[in-house]
Structure formats: structure tokens, C-alpha cells
Design brief:
The protein contains eight helices and nine strands. With about 325 residues, it is of the alpha/beta class.
């Protein structure tokens, strides 16, 4: 993890956990203990203190940002004399495999949806925009699954364009972690939400610009606010291996599971297999594609081995 600095030269303002928690102010807790338990993913040690000290202040900040964006939209409407439909506020959440993106996305969705004006908050993951396994196998990309080239980027960009344009409804493909593939002819409909959360490994990537100067969109261009979840490499590896060990007795044990062959591995075999997958695939993706996007985020949440967010860095305006 980077050392906490705020010397006036950094584009970020850094906060300790205690400093960030104070920014909750009087934001009410709207989730129960049972709801928080249901929202967390396997091995995420999310508890009420994490929600109160980290995610409530973030929800307060986002409520202010969304309100400011809506005011700016109304000002532009008056200036132009138009009646354009209000565009949704899109939040991107990125970071490594096993860092806890899914839990963060679900907690934010739950908190934001309970603001006093009860906005419509939808959530999608970019997993649905992975190419089907048949295509990945044909292109020899199965070991690159989760890398930028394994996604149907044109489809994802069309989806985000339609959402921003207020077209209704728009559809996102559904991905099954059980069968490790996109589910054919299954979709989730996104119907003009006030807020859309987009969670995925490479959502903050910008990509290479064309030399001829032609304008090309990137996924991150559609975000109004972005969050990067961070942790040390050794910690991420440990979380990944622990999750792999636990999955042997849960989803891997289902005969329909793509990873059913791993369900009977001994502890030592499972540790060796998971470490190999992490080193050959996930660590390479982290170094080459995910970690370089960290400093593009508006907010960085730095986790310790205990899964607690210990430092927060907010990009200065």
C-alpha cells in the first residue's frame, strides 16, 4: 500500500479511517445487521462498523455529487431551452480479483437506494460482457479471461451509451459463476435509473489512443465517479487462495459447476492449484491492466489483511 501523504502536490486528499468516519456527520444508518450480512460476499468480513465508518460517509459524498450534477443539468436545460431527459449518474467500481468489489457495489447500491428521495439505483457487473467461452476457446483466450481482450467491448460501450442517452429499457447480459460462462438469451433490464453502478476488473482502463486522432470512447468515459479497491499483492493472493479452498465445499461441489473437478482436491493440492492460477493469470492481469488504473479513480479504498478499509484517498477537485 502507498504511504499516506497529503503534501499539497498529490492529486488526492488522504484520510485515516478515523478521519474519514467523522465525515459521516449525521447520515442515518438505514441497513440492519441482517441486511449487511446478506450483502457481503464469501470471505468479506463486512460488519456494521465498516458500513458506518466507510460506506456511510461515501454515500453522503455521493449524494452531494449527484445533487450537484442534477442542479448543473437543470442549469444547462434553462440555458439551452431544452427538455432533455435527465441522464443517470454512473459510478464505476474497479480493482483486483478477490478484493471485494461485489460487496462494495451491493452495499453502495443498498445505501444509495435509501436516500430520502428513494432514487432508482441499478447495478451491473461487466462479467456479462465477457465473450462466451466458445469464442474464448476458439481464440485461445480462456487463460486470458478477465483481461481486456476477453470482453465484448463494443457491446459494453453500446450499453453504456444507451443508458446515458436515456433509452429504455437497455439490456445487459447475465453471467453465471457456476458454469463460468455468459448465460445465452438471459438479460437484466436497466430502465432509466437515477444511479447505475458498474463493477468490474478493468472498468477504469483508458486504452491506447489512435494515432490519427479519431475520437474513440472508453468505458471510464461514462463514469461520473469511480472507486478503486486496493490491497497489497500478498494479501490479495491470500484472500484468493482462501476463497478457492472454501469453494470446494460450496459451488465447486455442484456437478454443474465448471470447477467441479477441483471439489475433491486436498488442502495442499487446492493451495497449489489456486496459487498457480493466481500467479499465471490474476497477478499478470493485476500488474498489466488493473493496478495501472488505480490513480485514475476518484476514490481509493485501501484495505488491510483484516479486510478493513484503513485509508481513503479522495481526488481533489
Amino acid at each position: 500500500m502507498e504511504q499516506r501523504t497529503d503534501d499539497g502536490l498529490s492529486p488526492y486528499r488522504a484520510f485515516t479511517r478515523a478521519e474519514w468516519a467523522m465525515l459521516r456527520d449525521d447520515t442515518p444508518m438505514t441497513l440492519t445487521v441482517d441486511e449487511v450480512t446478506r450483502l457481503r460476499s464469501m470471505h468479506d468480513r463486512l460488519d456494521m462498523s465498516e458500513v458506518e465508518e466507510i460506506y456511510l460517509p461515501l454515500s453522503r459524498l455521493l449524494s452531494m455529487y449527484v445533487a450537484a450534477t442534477q442542479r448543473l443539468f437543470r442549469v444547462q436545460q434553462r440555458f439551452l431551452g431544452t427538455e432533455d431527459a435527465k441522464m443517470p449518474y454512473i459510478i464505476g467500481i474497479g480493482g483486483s480479483v478477490a478484493v471485494g468489489k461485489s460487496t462494495t457495489a451491493r452495499v453502495l447500491q443498498a445505501l444509495l437506494a435509501r436516500w430520502p428521495n428513494v432514487p432508482k439505483v441499478d447495478l451491473i457487473t461487466t462479467d456479462g460482457f465477457l465473450y462466451p467461452n466458445a469464442i474464448l476457446e476458439r481464440e485461445n483466450l480462456m487463460d486470458r479471461k478477465g483481461f481486456p481482450e476477453s470482453y465484448d467491448l463494443p457491446a459494453l460501450l453500446r450499453f453504456l451509451t444507451d443508458v446515458k442517452a436515456g433509452r429504455r429499457p437497455t439490456r445487459a447480459p447475465i453471467y453465471s459463476h457456476l458454469v463460468y460462462d455468459v448465460v445465452p438469451n438471459h438479460w437484466v433490464e436497466i430502465d432509466r435509473p437515477e444511479i447505475l453502478i458498474v463493477e468490474g476488473l478493468n472498468v477504469l482502463q483508458a486504452g491506447r489512443l489512435p494515432k490519427d486522432g479519431e475520437a474513440i470512447p472508453f468505458v471510464s468515459d461514462f463514469f461520473d465517479f469511480s472507486v478503486y479497491l486496493d490491497a497489497d499483492e500478498g494479501v490479495l493472493r491470500s484472500w484468493y487462495v482462501s476463497r478457492f479452498l472454501a469453494l470446494r465445499g460450496t459451488s465447486f461441489s455442484d456437478p454443474k459447476s465448471y470447477f467441479h473437478r477441483y471439489s475433491k482436491l486436498t488442502d495442499s493440492q487446492a493451495i497449489e492449484t489456486a496459487t498457480d492460477i493466481w500467479t499465471r493469470i490474476n497477478l499478470v492481469n493485476l500488474h498489466d491492466n488493473i493496478l495501472p488504473t488505480r490513480r485514475r479513480a476518484d476514490l481509493i479504498l485501501e484495505k488491510s489483511e483484516s479486510h478493513r478499509v484503513e485509508q481513503v484517498a479522495l481526488r481533489k477537485l
